[in-house]
Amino acid sequence: MNFRGLGAEVSGTEPDPRVLENPMLDVARMAWAEEIPFADGSFDLVFADNVLEHLQNPGAVFREVFRVLKPGGKFVFKTPNKWHYMPLIARATPHAFHRFYNRLRGREGIDTFPTAYRANSRADLTELGRISGLSIFSVDLIEGRPEYLRISPVTYVFGYLYERLVNSTRIFDGVRILIIGVLSRPNDAGHRAGAPSDQ
Asked: 39 exposed, middle or buried (CB, 10 Å; 0-12, 13-18, 19+)?
């Protein structure tokens, strides 16, 4: 997703050195999300696309997001819901199986990273917001096309039927695949409830 030119500056960080050659970024830094290499209050928006499921220490990451956001800034993310059948399978199988499965789908094994699913439910996000000082602005769950099951007609039909079922009523939104969330840093810099917790 190329946002370059849509804001004053588009910055990106990740531990993979390939980030340094990403043409969609104005500023690129190699770093882990637990120590974002930018100054306090640097950004109006922090965006994470399929990142939260990989975090071993999401509390530290959310506190860093709070730190680098300006007051009133937003943290926008897309991540799998850990109660969907695909993350449930992923949590019950070894990483080697994930690499094998992604190769079946035509994806390089080198781009399959370990998952932890510690920030991947409404309850997780509510607690992470509480300890970091970020407020829940919105959390929506969406079920789209079953791309994970595009390895055979039979699996794809199963995924299609599941998608039709869980999208038929809000009763099933807790088992839809994608969480699209927005958290915000409180506008008032002196807002005591917005200060990150030491827990």
From this structure: exposed
Best CA proximity match to 125, nearest among 188, 75, 71:
75
Alpha-carbon distances of 67 from 36, 98, 132, rounded to whole Å: 9, 34, 9
Task: With a cut of 70, list the residues of the chain below it in pLDDT.
Answer: 107-111, 188-199
For residue 67, the tally of other CB atoms under 10 A from its CB is: 17
* pLDDT of amino acid 111: 66
- Residue range 42-90+117-190, CATH number: 3.40.50.150
Integer-rounded Cα Rg, in Å, for the chain is 18
Can you tell me the distance from the alpha carbon of 101 to that of 119, in angstroms, rounded to the nearest whole number? 23
Which residues lie across from 140 on neighbouring strands? 180
The pairing of strands 178-184 and 135-142 is antiparallel
d(CA 12, CA 1): 12
- Which class for 179: exposed (0-12), middle (13-18), buried (19 or more C-beta within 10 A)? buried
Give the 3-state secondary structure of 103-154: HHCCCCHHHCCCCCCCCCCHHHHHHHHHHHCCEEEEEEEECCCCHHHCCCHH
- How far is residue 129's CA from residue 194's CA, in Å, rounded to a whole number? 9
**Start-end of CATH 3.40.50.150 domains in the chain:** 42-90+117-190
pTM over 0.70: yes
